[in-house]
């Protein structure tokens, strides 16, 4: 049977221990059932990841996955997924990134690359049109991912795209990133998995373009989509980027501040994009194959042409995590902190969350680091460097908030802001209670990208301060939609562009693959992918008690002049989770039959 259009129908499995590789056929029914990206990656994890494996063990797989849309003219489709069992959470981790690496990787002739084993010394895997070789990376071990890309790119030759880790990945920081061209597969510690394998980089170059079923119709559809993507639905991302959310969230009382002690930051205005644009040169950029142009690059020195000027890509999440969450309002410090995270290869949310937790521990006298106080910008920067090098208190915080709180003890677990070990992003769950449910049940942990439940909270469908079980199917809808978009893979900023999102995604797949996808089939596909992620977690030791929020959000009412008192009780969250499981077709405890999805 011929492979579906848009696919190669095979993955590459590389063993670093034996320096060998093998091609593996991916059946058409698997491609249709799991599509690509996070969906196909989850299926591959179920196939290749041993139950109960240590994520940093040689036999633990690291998987790069493309999708049928990669290489097409569809806007925002130049994306790839990276999956592994997370060293931070011990559960599934699927992170996405946008860059030319996706296009070059797929042109090598594979829909995915599965990497197992561990090299004897720092190594770069080179994949070029189905030919695989192993290059030394001794000369770039210890360098930033950007410097490693530059050096290896010069050595390997024109046209190679390189995904690499920084020093944090080499030091096995549990939230180290995998990066290419300034973009990051950030959350969950994929960089640490690479580092454990002594894999500094993966370089790809190829010429094998997959055919599309209806190329002329696809071009026409892509033109119309590009026009819509440059319309009012994405205007705020183009004009100010996601950093514009900071003041909105502050006004609504949902901007996490000082390790989630409050939902407003008195000095938020100083970090607004409008004020930052006055003090720092700002330029706009786009991801590969994207017409939206949401990237906003702020320069740390006003004179953009100065040799000392450094451009830093700012988004809401790194602005919140390295700013208000740590009580820091100095934009120079926040920009430098974000730059340091990029250089070291640190996830900004987990880095900021771990430091904010440590600051509160210092506040309560539980940690002897006198300088590490809320609002102390120099201490924030110094601690980031210590985390990247695993020195001093940085060695403890490199483990993430959950492990750090377990080691510190003394009641600190109550204010360690994580779910399943993954630090919370910039959404206050007590005043965004549909999002609280999304955090609690998330297969990856507290994650705003795998559950878009905040969309429900910001709508008129619920009372975000006091939701009931009617919010549950709305939360499930956003989770299913995210699973599908992460499998195609498409940027979620396109959500507002479509009149009927599932129908539009079905049409894209039809034009690329030649297969008719009904809306109902795509909804079933999304549910299948969510089910598969849960199944992976069950096989890796998940228990129902993990679907929860820290005590802080259950026991500490949040009160400010914007929201008034906001309380989320443990019994209420438990009833919402039970309703979620019932709607998913799982048992009241969240279990299901241990069978292949």
Describe, in plain words, how this protein is organized in 3D.
39% of the residues lie in helices and 14% in strands. It starts with 9 loop residues before the first strand and ends in a 13-residue tail after the last helix. The protein is globular, with a radius of gyration of 22 Å. By secondary structure, it is α+β, with helices and mostly antiparallel strands. It is built from 23 helices and 19 strands. It has 3 domains: 10-205, Aldehyde ferredoxin oxidoreductase, N-terminal domain (Aldehyde Ferredoxin Oxidoreductase,  A, domain 1, 4-Layer Sandwich), CATH 3.60.9; 230-423, Aldehyde Ferredoxin Oxidoreductase Protein, subunit A, domain 2, CATH 1.10.569.10; 433-584, Orthogonal Bundle (Aldehyde Ferredoxin Oxidoreductase Protein, subunit A, domain 3). The strands form 6 sheets. The chain has a 6-stranded mixed beta sheet. The relative contact order is 0.12.
Outline:
The chain has 597 residues and is an alpha+beta fold. It contains 23 helices and 19 strands. It folds into 3 domains: 10-205, Aldehyde ferredoxin oxidoreductase, N-terminal domain (Aldehyde Ferredoxin Oxidoreductase,  A, domain 1); 230-423, Aldehyde Ferredoxin Oxidoreductase Protein, subunit A, domain 2, CATH 1.10.569.10; 433-584, Aldehyde Ferredoxin Oxidoreductase Protein, subunit A, domain 3 (Orthogonal Bundle).
């Amino acid at each position: 049977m011929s492979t579906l259009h848009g696919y190669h129908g095979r993955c590459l499995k590389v063993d670093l221990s034996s320096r060998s590789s093998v091609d593996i056929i991916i059946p058409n029914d698997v491609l249709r059932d799991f599509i690509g990206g996070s969906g196909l990656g989850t299926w591959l994890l179920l196939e290749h990841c041993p139950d109960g494996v240590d994520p940093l063990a040689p036999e633990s797989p690291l998987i790069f996955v493309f999708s049928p849309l990669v290489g097409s003219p569809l806007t925002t489709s130049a994306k790839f997924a990276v999956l592994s069992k997370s060293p931070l959470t011990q559960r599934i981790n699927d992170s996405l990134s946008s860059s030319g690496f996706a296009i070059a990787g797929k042109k090598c002739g594979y829909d995915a690359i599965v990497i197992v084993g561990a090299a004897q010394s720092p190594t770069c895997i080179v994949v070029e049109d189905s030919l695989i070789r192993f290059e030394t990376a001794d000369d770039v071990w210890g360098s930033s991912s950007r410097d490693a890309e530059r050096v290896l790119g010069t050595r390997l030759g024109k046209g190679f795209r390189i995904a690499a880790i920084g020093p944090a990945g080499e030091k096995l920081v549990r939230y180290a990133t995998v990066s290419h061209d300034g973009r990051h597969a950030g959350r969950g510690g994929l960089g640490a998995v690479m580092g454990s394998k002594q894999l500094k980089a993966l370089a790809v170059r190829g010429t094998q373009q997959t055919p599309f079923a209806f190329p002329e119709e696809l071009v026409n559809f892509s033109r119309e989509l590009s026009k819509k993507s440059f319309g009012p639905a994405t205007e705020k991302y183009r004009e100010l980027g996601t950093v514009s959310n900071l003041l909105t969230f502050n006004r609504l009382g949902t901007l996490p501040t000082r390790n989630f002690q409050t939902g407003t930051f008195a000095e938020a205005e100083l970090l607004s994009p409008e004020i930052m644009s006055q003090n720092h040169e700002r330029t706009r950029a786009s991801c590969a194959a994207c017409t939206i142009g949401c990237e906003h690059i702020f320069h740390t020195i006003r004179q953009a042409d100065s040799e000392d000027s450094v451009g830093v890509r700012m988004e809401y999440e790194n602005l919140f995590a390295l700013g208000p969450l740590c009580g820091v309002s100095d934009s120079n410090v926040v920009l430098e902190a974000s730059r340091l995270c990029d250089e070291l290869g640190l996830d900004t949310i987990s880095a900021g969350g771990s430091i904010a937790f440590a600051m509160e521990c210092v506040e309560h006298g539980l940690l002897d680091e006198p300088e590490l106080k809320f609002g102390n910008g120099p201490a924030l920067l110094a601690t980031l460097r210590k985390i990247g090098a695993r020195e001093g208190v940085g060695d403890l915080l490199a483990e993430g908030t959950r492990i750090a709180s377990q080691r510190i003890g003394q009641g600190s677990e109550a204010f360690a802001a994580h779910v399943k070990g993954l630090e919370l992003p910039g959404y206050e769950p007590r005043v965004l209670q549909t999002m609280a449910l999304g955090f609690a049940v998330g297969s990856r942990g507290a994650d705003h990208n795998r559950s878009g439940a905040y969309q429900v909270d910001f709508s008129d469908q619920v009372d975000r301060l006091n939701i009931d079980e009617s919010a549950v199917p709305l939360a499930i809808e956003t989770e299913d939609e995210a699973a599908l978009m992460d499998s195609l893979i498409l940027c979620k900023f396109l959500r507002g562009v479509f009149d009927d999102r599932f129908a539009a995604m079905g049409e894209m797949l039809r034009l690329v693959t030649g297969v008719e996808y009904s809306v109902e089939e795509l909804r079933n596909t999304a549910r299948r992918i969510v089910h598969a992620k849960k199944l992976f977690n069950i096989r890796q030791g998940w228990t129902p008690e993990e679907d929860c929020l820290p005590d802080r959000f259950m026991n500490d009412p949040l009160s400010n002049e914007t929201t008034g008192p906001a309380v989320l009780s443990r019994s209420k969250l438990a009833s919402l989770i039970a309703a979620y499981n019932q709607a998913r077709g799982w048992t009241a405890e969240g279990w299901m039959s241990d069978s292949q999805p």
